[in-house]
């Protein structure tokens, strides 16, 4: 719902979004560091990691894309795997149609780019409590998350390049640890069981019964899970 004349100025909502997202941003920073370590293993420096985080700004997609590149998949396959994994964002941004209605194109693009599981869920939680939380609240939360994510990933990549033997510190586990953290943050209850279970089943069956490269099994799993979530109307 767009702000009316009785609503607080956009700066108030922007500031409120930034403030309220901070507890969630701490968790984002933790797996941001893990992704930075993974990026360093893929021979990405701090600048490249920061640029990727700013442009893509999708933790799970970045992680799976880099992991696929490290596994020898081509750039196109890595991008498709990342897109398939984050198809749920189509559902999230579609649910924001009323918030974007009537806004300039640049505000729509900004809102779509900054919409994540965390600030989207926080916005709806605040509305459920009777607080005004509109477009600028979403953007404020997204800006806070983006800043923490980029800083954490750059720090992780920079730190890793300064360590002569990253594997001796267990940094080869960075991808797994970061992905587990992201999955935990995405879990929102039993409604997720069917889409997640279907995705896992598709990946396992495709991997066992077909000669497909793991990249393509991940893409199939992501598409299948997103399709089921869409049919069920799971936002």
Structural summary, described in words:
With 235 residues, this protein is mainly alpha-helical. It folds into two domains: 10-186, no CATH class; 189-235, no CATH class. Helix content is 74%, strand content 0%. It contains twelve helices and no strands. The protein has helices at residues 10-41, 46-56, 59-70, 75-85, 88-94, 97-100, 105-114, 117-128, 135-161, 174-186, 193-209, 214-232. Helix 1 (10-41) packs parallel to helix 3 (59-70) and helix 1 runs parallel beside helix 9 (135-161). The chain is globular, with a radius of gyration of 19 Å. It starts with 9 loop residues before the first helix and ends with a helix.
Secondary-structure-derived class? mainly alpha
From the N-terminal CA to the C-terminal CA, the straight-line distance is 17 Å
Query: In total, how many domains does the architecture comprise?
Result: 2
Sheet with the most strands?
none
Which runs of at least 5 residues are low in confidence (pLDDT < 50)? 1-7
Number of strands: 0
On the 0 to 100 scale, the average pLDDT is 80
- Sheet-strand content, in percent, reads under 5%
Q: Kindly state the percentage of residues in helix.
A: over 70%
């Amino acid at each position: 719902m767009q702000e009316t004349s009785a609503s607080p100025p956009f700066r108030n909502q922007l500031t409120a979004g930034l403030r309220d997202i901070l507890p969630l941003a701490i968790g984002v920073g933790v797996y941001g560091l893990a992704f930075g370590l993974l990026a360093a293993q893929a021979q990405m420096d701090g600048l490249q990691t920061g640029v990727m985080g700013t442009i893509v700004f999708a933790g799970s997609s970045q992680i799976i894309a880099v992991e696929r590149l490290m596994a020898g998949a081509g750039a196109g396959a890595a991008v498709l795997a990342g897109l398939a994994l984050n198809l749920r964002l189509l559902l999230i941004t579609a649910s924001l149609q009323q918030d974007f209605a009537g806004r300039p194109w640049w505000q729509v693009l900004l809102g779509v780019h900054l919409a994540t599981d965390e600030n989207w869920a926080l916005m709806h939680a605040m509305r459920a409590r009777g607080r005004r939380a509109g477009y600028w609240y979403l953007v404020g939360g997204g800006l806070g998350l983006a800043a923490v994510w980029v800083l954490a990933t750059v720090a992780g990549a920079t730190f890793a390049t300064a360590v002569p033997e990253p594997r001796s510190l267990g940094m080869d586990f960075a991808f797994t640890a970061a992905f587990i953290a992201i999955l935990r943050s995405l879990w929102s209850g039993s409604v997720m069981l069917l889409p997640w279970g279907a995705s896992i089943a598709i990946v396992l069956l495709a991997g066992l019964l077909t000669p497909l490269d793991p990249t393509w099994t991940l893409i199939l799993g992501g598409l299948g899970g997103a399709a089921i979530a869409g049919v069920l109307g799971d936002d």
